[in-house]
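Example 3.2
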Amino acid sequence: MGEFSNSIKIDHNKIMYFMESVKNMNYQIPTFQREVVWDKISVKKLWDSIYKFYPIGSILVWKTDMKLQKHKSVGGHLISDDVERKEYQYILDGQQRTTSLLTSLFGGKIENKPNFDPKLYVDLTVINESETDDETYRERFLFWDEIDVGDGKSTQNVKRKKKYDEGLIVELKSIAEDFDSLLDRIVEEKGYKSDESKQLRAFKYVLDNYELSFIELTGIAVSEVCQIFERINQAGKPLDIFDIVVAKTFVPKTETDKGFYLRELIDEFREKNDSNFMNISDLDYLQILAVLIRIDNPNSGVQNITNGYLNEIKTEHIKAVWDDAQIAILNTFKFLENYLHLQPYLIPYRYLYMTITAYFFRNKKPDYDFLIKYFWYYSFHSYDLLSNTTHLHRHIDNMQIQREKGIYPFETFVFDKQKLRASKYSATGRFCSAILALYTNKEPRDWQDKVMKVQVSNYFATTDKPQLHHVFPTNSKFVLDHPNDNQNSLMNIAFITQSTNLKISNRDPNDYLKDFVDEKFSGIMAEHFLPKEFINLCGIDSLPNNALSVFIEKRIELIEADLRENLKGIEFQTIDTKTE
């Protein structure tokens, strides 16, 4: 069983015992478990499974001394208090089932259904039609709105209301709490061996004997709890460390304290500011805060951005940095959008959000020329220099050196031509994002409408597999006749509008260029990293056999020249691992 043999335990509890335990506040439901959707059919199916002694899945419970923000009530039932406990029992998976069971037994209030009574009733006259019956649950289990005739207009409920008045439709809770009286009445009217009497006894047996399965986690770190939750949770939704930190740092509002709710802070920050970067993940925001907390308070215990350290974040830590953090985050987003003209899907490293925000944090005189140099250096360096937390903290420490002394310890920049030749589109590839970011940074204008800037965001708006246009179309006659290992390279990609792409179709460059080349075309070539030789292909009878290879090599030279300009002052080394 390994190290968790005593920490993960399987247990069972009778259903009514569990319900009373919830009502007695022995279980807590953290506020990050908040997406309860009440559905009448789902509740009926749940009870039908219990009625047939089918398993309904385990309840995942985390036993810990950690105090989290938790729901005060579920379905109108108070299930939490402010009493300090040595151990809390948090329901991590099973809130939906717990809420459904609690309210269908004891009634309550359902969100967005102000006049709905969730108590469940049982029609004792409904008998299974066969061993494989799967539909009678719709008639066996009823809600009051399916029984009540109201002002007499609900004529379809008349028969059911009559059965209710005769004691043949009974409240589910009353079977558990008033079984003897119900049975006496039915026996008197129908006899002990009647179907209705059998059904009543069957339900009593279910309520007395059906056991729920529990997976209990005790003495397990937050990071492990998150992993276990993700693998067990039936909906497949991960339990993010962000949720736990939100719950841990929550402070309720009082008459003297305005309270604290991290999720609300971040949601409000997103809403009041206009940027596509606002929608970076909750984890990104949390890790940014962790970085800033470490800068603000080196003794906070938040020494890294991994789950174990994120779990050390306290309310006072966030409060100490939040105002300045908002300014720094906004400056980071503005830099990426306004200086580099980028969007979130083209950021090579997500850690850049953290390093750049750390640079802006309480920095009254940021050096934007340095930041531009920093961004392209790490985006295009042949070696991966920002992919782990060791890299991250080295960057942040070096950022502080730059702020204090105006220097950054850039080492030799290594530029590998082969990496550009071999680059292919990848939704998560660092080098792919760097190349596309460089193309986007030039704010290229369309080949056809040479005044209009191409809306690059349209390529990525609805899919992670955008229809990128090939300068030498992969289904053109030339490429089909001259297959090239690099025909799908990003060196053969250009950002143009969809209408221009359709006009080009699968034609060779010497054919389609005739539609676009004019006195303005040469003016936009640099924006697309198009070599000057490319325009010479316009109108020639046939393309040279090496036309695509020559185009790619010339384009790599232009990209190299652009990077040299951006990284002026840094030692620049060009290599070619293909030839070496």
